[in-house]
Amino acid sequence: MRAAKTSIRLLKEDIQLEKEASKAYVSWAKRFDEDYVKEFFLTFSRDEVGHAAGQNRLLSQRETGDYEVKLFCPQCGWVLNFGRDPDVGYEETCPMCGAKSMLDEKEGDFLLNVVNY
């Protein structure tokens, strides 16, 4: 769970939202007599169930620490991959703009500090 505080919180909130949306779509499907309209809403409900399942997998990865730390370059927005369980202080050079950033940790989340540009 190291340095994933915010992503864990957001994933939990999103999972709850997906579950509530699925129930709402089922409820809406029950209001109509036409099969094609019912199926329209039930398809959305199944989609939400799938989204929740995917978010649960991501949550499990965050809680066990089994995920790659990827952050956006503070200079250009390119994705920087720090791999699994990186050490604070690790420096990465952006392959797009050449800015060098150092991995830091604050209040349970990873962040980047620009070392030079």
Care to describe what's here?
With 117 residues, this protein is α+β, with helices and mostly antiparallel strands. The chain contains two helices and five strands. Strands 3-4-5 form a three-stranded antiparallel sheet. A two-stranded antiparallel ribbon has the order 1-2. Helix 1 (5-29) packs antiparallel against helix 2. The protein starts with a helix and ends with a strand.
In short:
The chain is α+β, with helices and mostly antiparallel strands. The protein is built from 2 helices and 5 strands, in the order H-H-E-E-E-E-E.
List the helices and strands and how they pair.
Elements: H1 5-29, H2 35-64, E1 68-72, E2 79-84, E3 91-93, E4 100-106, E5 109-116
Antiparallel strand pairs: 1-2, 3-4, 4-5
Strand content: 15-25%
Mean pLDDT: 94
**Number of contiguous helices:** 2
Radius of gyration: 20 Å
How many β-strands, per DSSP?
Answer: 5
* CA(first)-CA(last) distance: 31 Å
Largest sheet descriptor: 3 strands, antiparallel
Strand order, main sheet: write it out.
Answer: 3-4-5
Give the helix proportion (percent range): 40-55%
**What's the assembly state of these chains?**
single chain
What is the N-to-C succession of helices and strands? HHEEEEE
Helix-and-strand structural type: alpha+beta
Shape: elongated
Number of domains: 2
Low-confidence stretches: none
